[in-house]
Amino acid sequence: MAGLAPDASSLAAARRLARPGPWSDTGSTDTLLWGKCQGSGKTPYQVSIDLVGPAFRCSCPSRKFPCKHGLALLLLWVDGSGSVADADEAAGFAQEWAAERSARAEARAAGDAARPTQTPDPAAAAKRLEDRLALMDGGMDDFARWLTDLARGGTAAARHQSYSWWDGTAARLVDAQLPGLADDVRSVGGAVSGRPDWPERLLVALGRWWTATRAWAARESLDDAQMGDLRAYLGWSTSADSVRRADAVTDRWLVLGAHRSDDGRLQQQRTWLLGDATGETVQVLDFAAGGQVLPVARAVGSTLVATVARYPGAAVRRALFADEPAPADDEVRMPSGSTLEHAQLAAARAWGQNPWARRVPVVLADVRVGVDRVVDPQGASLSLTGDAPVWSLLALTGGRPSRVFGELEDSRLRPLTVVVDGEVVGL
Amino acid sequence: MSDQEAGDVDTWWREVGNVALVGTSRRPVPPLPDLGPAGVRARADGARREETLLDSVAIGAAALRAGRRLDHADPPAAAPDDHRPVAPRRAVQLLELVITQPPAGAQQRAGLLVHWLRAADDAGCRVPHGLLPGLLDLATGGRELRRPVTAVLDERGRWLAGLREEWSWVADAVAGAGAGAASRSEGTAPAAGDWARLPSSDRIAVLATLRTHEPAAARALVASTWATDSARDRHAHLGTLRIGLGPDDEPLLEAALDDRAATVRGAAAELLDAFPGSARAARMAERLRPLVRRTGLLGRGVEVTLPGEPDPAGTRDGLGKPPPRRSARGWWLEQICAGAPLEVWSELTGADPSLTVKRLTDAQATDALTGIRRAVRARRDPEWATALLDRGWDPTLVAALPRERRERVVLTRVDATTDRVHELGAVVGSVDPPWSPDFSVALVSRLRASKVGSAMVLATMPHLLSGLHPAALDPLERWIEQAGGDQTLTTNLRNLLQFHSVKRSITEAFR
């Protein structure tokens, strides 16, 4: 039964997953093996293996077959350390396969040891930076002119422009290496024609864009944090290596919640972490396009020990894992949460520091969930975002006061996590 | 900020919006109001009108976002407490698996789900809250799941379903099952007044449930409104008597032979065929006796004569207008044979059922045998069923045999049917599930021995899924190991094995 794994990288990935950490609800019968693996989705992947076939099933989007989750579950079971319930003896094919694979993997690891490292050329880097700034300056000037033209002609006139007018502006911003701003323009341009609340939406967007052009013009006076937030908004990426070198902090991190989106072109994963010692909530962003697969997501409600490096920024900071997180021995508890009014105040404070922050993380105490809103004990209420998993939330809470973690975005709440009977459940 | 100041800001922001709408070329930009402790001031240098507007928009948008006042609303109503405990953890894992990744293939999902839901209901458990939306969605698409799903929703599930238009079928199912469920759990029939007011379709459901537990109470309900019910309802109500039919039902059926409607009379006559001890059966026996005669020197032949024109009593007993393309007298003979006690035949021929069947060979025998078959089916007479099956295969008679003999007869038939695979499904299907271990093992070994085993498995798949005993799973597994390159066969066998294995695990998970 050789060759169950489609390729070496799947197998390597499977070996990394073949430990109890990411697995839950594992079990088996004489003919079936199952378990749930915390993958890159917000809900764990359901994995099952028909041991008779063998045939693999997994709810992950990977096109590889069998995927790493299936292989990992098999490895975990063959390992027989009791992590998969009822595993008395692994099926013959599985054992043979595992033994053969472990030999091959060791041979490969030895070959991986030496990889050439690049030495950067400082002069060339400085030249590149100068060219980029010149390009961005030009793009921002051009954009400011476009904004003043729009202000002179009025938004009612702009509304009658075709989408290509917005798209053209966005394309020029992309050419000027301002892709984040370009995305914002495209998305507002798309919304203006179809939404009844377009005047206010466009007005607020104009304010945001104008603030960006003014901030860019005054960028000499911005500190590193403010500049970091502006860069993130404009889409001027900061290299992960430089982030890793700059501002790393080792802490125990509670995985508050995660959100995943897929617009067909790009998959995005946002994981919110709360530091125990720092008390700061940061977001880890992962992206994957084309055939790429998002990195492993963290189980919501779990606590990780990790060194996390933060991107420059003032509030609602982005971060990345500087090393491989390990499960923590003792857990960080989910904060007890606040009223909606306090959450709104905290968000206002965050926006005061970082006007570009699209969403602010909040933990709400004792809110009751309805079909389109949450209501706190004071009677204050907040609408839910259109993509909120409202039926799961209603099923889990039954309309009873519950602690909810979510993102405040455009004065709506996107719930990501709920605490039910003391159990933290990712939605 | 005071309300006065807030009002000023609102007026200002509205005006900023108006200017933005028509453009600064048409309307002047209003001056910034006092924005309180934030201390925001207009630019000192002479900015152009557009820039002043954009400054105002930027400030206003930031203020709007940070200073938005929350709406107030009444809290949504909460779900009542559940009554049942949640299903055991292992059972929940299996349910999740069946929902998200049906182990025996998507086609078998509904079968496993129904098994899970029934097992949960029997164990008095409910579905875990997190799985409610997925299950409700599945049952919205698959109607056969609705009843079993409704049984294990408990308060939370019913509350949840009430919040969403797509799930409104739950309320109907709960209301429909309500009367039946009440009679099942409390052992009481609905009060006469309630019964009279129930719509026709609900009455059938109530009767069907009640008949399985309290046939007399159900019969009393039927009788209570008999005089005022429409012919259509009377006919439908008689139909439910088929469930738990017993000699106590005879008086009602006998009275129904005088009904105004022919359909009701016909249904009553057919139901009475099941009672060899009834008054009608005795009357039919009297009609049969003069028609059967022993022939030959040793009296080993049997001759049947067609009956003559029936008297009014005969017509009342069912000797009426024949079905299309049937001779009237042949039909009457069939009706008489179907209604008379089978013992009359032994009395008249002096032979046991087997010999009697063999001796029924003359021109009238076909009509007589059709009638006898009906009597055997209605009375589940094993001896006569065996005698008839020896003469020719008839799957509808198999049910009259005791299980052991039934399975033996079917296995013999399977051996004889191997070249007609398309008939095999009906043959195997005549043994109602669940099958005995011996039959299951023997059937699998015959399928495996056949040269067309793959086609046979396909033809009998639905019955193998519902009937196979776990004892056959080992042989099945050995077969898979040696099935070789036949992909369709391997897949079918694997699904079959997995289906039963998971089904057994589900049953065990609720113990």
Automatic annotation (TrEMBL), chain A:
Keywords: Metal-binding, Zinc, Zinc-finger. Residues 45-78 form the SWIM-type domain. GO terms for molecular function: zinc ion binding. It comes from the Bacteria. InterPro entries: Znf_SWIM (IPR007527). This is SWIM zinc finger protein. It comes from Humibacillus xanthopallidus. The lineage of its organism: Bacteria, Bacillati, Actinomycetota, Actinomycetes, Micrococcales.
TrEMBL record, chain B:
InterPro entries: DUF5691. It holds the Pfam family DUF5691. It comes from the Bacteria. Residues 303-326 are annotated as: Disordered. This is Uncharacterized protein.
